[in-house]
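User: Here's a chain of 258 residues. Predict its fold as tokens.
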Amino acid sequence: MLRLLFGLSLFVLPGVLVAEETGTLTGQFLYDGPAPNREKLELNKDIEYCAPHNLKSEELIVDPQTRGIKNIILWLDTKSSGQKPKFESAPEHSKQVVFDNKNCRFNPHISVLMTTQKLLVKNSDPIAHAALVNAFVNDPLNAVVNAKSTADTTYNLPYVEPLPIKITCPIHAWMSAYLVVQDHPFVAVTDANGQFEIKGLPPGEWTFRVWQESCGYVKSATQAGEEQTWDRGRMTVTIEPGKNAIGVFQLKPELFQN
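Assistant: Prediction complete.
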């Protein structure tokens, strides 16, 4: 049995055992200006329960101190890269991804799945919710999830989605979230400080797509004072064994004013 050992992925060529060290890609996205205020959401139903949760827009979340942009999505684009990277299957590649209705919002706001995984839709709230997904490629989902549901809904997405797909709640108009579905594990979502990490990348030149829900594809960024243009969010990076820190990208406020 071949195993991942000390950052080395092993694979077999005819008569030869070859070890290829993988790379880890890290970086950060910052908002080039003061952090914008998040709007308080307008509630249309179950107000008595939902209002105390102080719900605010999640379309653009910028940390006031670091100016890091949360929930920017990066995924390795196999079509633009010209090949699909090799990776070793792991138990988590078939583990269910839990998607909850909690405190009158979808949790998490961004869910990442491989096509070998299933989405488990549950409801931790004492009120009924619904999950409506109009996928680009996979079958749609329109499920009502009862209050404190014990009969959770399982959603299969066996095909790669070209873009993050939106989930809404027909009962509560303000609720939304996104699903990212790929056939490989090389996907990242930036944290509260705008930082990301993608592990296990094979060495070579790879193209990633960069996307954020309020602007769609991230088409430009400033790095070390130089402007970069990314056609339809395509960012090409050369991965070497070990750490690959590509630094800080500043994103102008105009990108998010579409």
